[in-house]
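Listing S7. Sequence submitted for prediction.
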Amino acid sequence: MKRYILGMLILIVGTISAQAQCDKQVKIKCEKTIRANPDGSTAEEQNMPVDILITKDSIKINAVPPEGGSVEIAGPLSEKNCKMTGNYTDGIYTFKSAALLKKDGGETREMNLVFKLEAKGGKITFYGEKDVPQGQDPERMIFEIKEQKVN
């Protein structure tokens, strides 16, 4: 019984510390976005400055499309699944957001989005896609990272 309780405590503490890892603030700067086909191949590349800020509770993305103007996507995080180790050097962090998209000119719309932050050997890759019903192909964006900072 003591071993069982000790094992449960270790599991709980490990889970809490793993989730706490994703409570850090992450700032990402990108210069290029890649729209991917459902099979993962590149559909379109765009040179587009993008700043991404992920906090423990929210995400904010500011982009300047090639045609000009600005786009902001912001929303709270939900359904967070953190399997990150170290200082974001290895692991995966996935989350959803019911975000609001705002464009210059006043256009706004709500979007359900799914994000994945993947770290391998200290290099972070960031993905975003629309949360679509089962069986539909999502529109996936890959953000080519120029700079990253984890606080």
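Caption to Listing S7: primary sequence and predicted structure tokens for the chain studied. Strands lie at 26-36, 42-54, 58-63, 71-85, 90-103, 108-120, 123-130, 140-150. Confidence is low (pLDDT under 50) at residues 1-19.
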